[in-house]
Design a protein that fits this description.
The chain has 14 helices and 25 strands. It is α/β, with parallel strands linked by helices. The protein folds into 2 domains: 15-157 and 360-499, FAD/NAD(P)-binding domain, CATH 3.50.50.60; 162-356, 3-Layer(bba) Sandwich (FAD/NAD(P)-binding domain). The protein binds flavin-adenine dinucleotide (FAD).
């Protein structure tokens, strides 16, 4: 496995020029670098990463039990078979990424401890000037790049989001956010309250239940979950038949994508049926005496927020064993001993975990300019969720909410690896997405329709995100099933692409 120690950061070169500069070495950056190397072997490129290793989300999140909530056949890359159980730990995902980096020789392209602090486009030079701060030496390093490939994620890594509740300062116990989980935090024997009921809470609860005195999931309102074995029958059958792992990966991937598409469509066409089925499964697991109506019956349509997969029903089993419990209530205030709820009940706690989400961050908070003018991405319109009006030679990998993030990495990569040779062939050094004249008059919409998908971090940060425009060209469809055919068919000669 590859890690930071085995590939020291090369000496800085104050004027290094590359064809493509990728920012971020998380799943998006590594997947993009792999595709670029494979599809455009002659392209000069670097990956700049602020951390001292690759993995992004899977490195910065260190809370107990950290794991994926989607399957690794689709969260893993199309080009590298996933051979383990579908739901994977952060360590397993990192090991998988490490193999890819080593196998493809990506190490020499990645510059760790390089935090990008500015990106400035010059139309006169047709290139980006990118400044990075070296976190090991404090030096400022400069690059120029023909094309910027933004893989810096979508939330702030340094700090998670937690609301301010009255009385927090009086609380005698500790308060931690899962995003900044201290390595030496010992939960043994502690009464723990986890605020929130998203994927993080659902992961954390079973991981610490039994070790701590008791863990309570305190939620304002319930969330949908899916559960099942952490195994895929089809993959097991194909393995018994000694089918090659690369075939298994492809077949299982297609099957999962097909099923996911059918499920997603059902949530729109027959939401009540899907809702009844999801809740019915939980009812069966929890038994007739458990108050599923209060704790596991959301009021919203399924898929309006991400549905976490609970492998082997471990969350529900921890509750059934009495090691964990769910309280559905509002928070009135913190007290010295714990949390007083809207109902007047007090939850005593030694440790409160605020699994309340993250701060959305557009372009990693990096200040961008185009010809000296600051770019406000909220004022731009997105071309299919990857390019932005007025911002030349740049793509952003922003994955799917209802499917694995990484599926988008491959689609964007294939697009870029078509676009760059196309530019070369037509003698263009710059390309920018522009609304067609009839579209420019149309009303703009938020990045995501709240009716469609509305988790808290998006609602809190929607004003920061680029706008959607009229028609599919100007939206992040959030529908992999459509995009997988639409992206390869994008006509690079379409007037939405303005070349110079
Ligand atoms: C706990 C958790 C679990 C998740 N599980 C799933 C899942 O199961 N399935 C799914 O589809 N999605 C999941 N997601 C969503 C998840 O964020 C994406 O799947 C994926 O990790 C995003 O990858 P990324 O490479 O785009 O961004 P990130 O993982 O955020 O990586 C971005 C990288 O860019 C670097 N970077 C940022 N700014 C700069 C800068 N200025 N200079 C240099 N480097 C910079 C960061 O240090 C980081 O390493 C999960 C998210 C969280 C938080």
């Amino acid at each position: 496995m590859t890690d930071a120690a085995s590939h020291p950061t090369p000496a800085p070169d104050a004027s290094e020029h590359v064809d493509v500069l990728i920012i971020g070495a998380g799943v998006s950056g590594i997947g993009s670098a792999w595709q670029l190397r494979k599809q455009m072997p002659d392209a000069r490129f670097v990956v700049l990463e602020a951390l001292d290793t690759f993995g992004g989300t899977w490195v910065t999140h260190r809370y107990p039990g950290i794991r994926s909530d989607s399957d690794l056949h689709t969260y893993g890359y199309s080009f590298k078979p996933w051979t383990g159980p579908p739901i994977a730990t952060a360590a397993e995902i990192k090991a998988y990424m490490g193999e890819i980096i080593a196998e493809a020789g990506l190490d020499r392209h990645i510059r760790y401890r390089h935090r990008v602090v500015s990106a400035d486009w010059s139309s006169a030079e047709s290139r980006w000037a990118v400044t990075a701060e070296r976190l090991d030496t404090g030096e400022t390093v400069r690059f120029t790049a023909g094309f910027l490939w933004m893989c810096q994620g979508y939330y702030r890594h340094d700090e998670g989001y937690a609301p301010e509740w009255p009385g927090m300062a009086d609380f005698r116990g500790s308060i931690v956010h899962p995003q900044t989980w201290p390595d030496d935090l010992d939960v043994t024997g502690k009464r723990v309250v986890v605020i929130g009921s998203g994927a993080t809470a659902a992961t954390l609860l079973p991981a610490i239940a039994g070790r701590c005195a008791h863990v309570t999931m305190l939620q304002r309102s319930p969330t949908y979950f899916r559960t099942g074995r952490n195994a895929i029958d089809l993959a097991e059958t194909l393995r018994q038949l000694q089918v090659d792992e690369s075939w298994i990966h492809e077949i299982v991937r297609r099957k999962i994508l097909f099923d996911q598409d059918a499920f997603t469509r059902q949530t729109f066409e027959k939401p009540d049926k899907v809702r009844a089925e999801l809740i019915g499964v939980i009812r069966t697991i929890m038994g007739p005496d458990y108050d599923v109506d209060t704790h596991f019956t959301p009021s919203y349509r399924p898929w309006r927020q991400r549905i976490a997969f609970v492998p082997d029903a471990d969350l529900f089993e921890a509750i059934r064993r009495g090691e964990a419990s769910v309280v559905t209530d509002t928070i009135d205030r913190f007290t010295p001993a714990g949390i007083r709820l809207g109902s007047g009940q007090e939850l005593e706690a030694d440790l409160v975990v605020t699994a309340t989400g993250f701060h959305l961050s557009v372009m990693g908070g990096i200040p961008f300019t185009v010809d000296g003018k600051a770019v406000d991405f909220a004022e731009t319109v997105t071309y299919r969720g990857m390019m932005f009006t007025g911002v030349p030679n740049l793509v952003w990998v922003f994955g799917y909410f209802r499917a694995s993030w990484t599926l988008r990495t491959d689609l964007v990569a294939d697009f870029v690896c078509r676009l760059l040779p196309h530019m070369k062939a037509r003698g263009a050094s710059a390309v920018v997405a522009a609304l067609r004249p009839d579209e420019a008059k149309g009303p703009l919409a938020p990045w995501v329709d709240e009716e469609n998908f509305n988790p808290g971090y998006l609602l809190r940060g929607m004003h920061l995100l680029p706008k959607a425009g009229p028609g599919p060209d100007w939206q992040h469809s959030q529908d992999y099933w459509t995009d997988k055919d639409a992206f390869p068919a994008i006509d690079l000669g379409d007037p939405v692409f303005v070349y110079r």
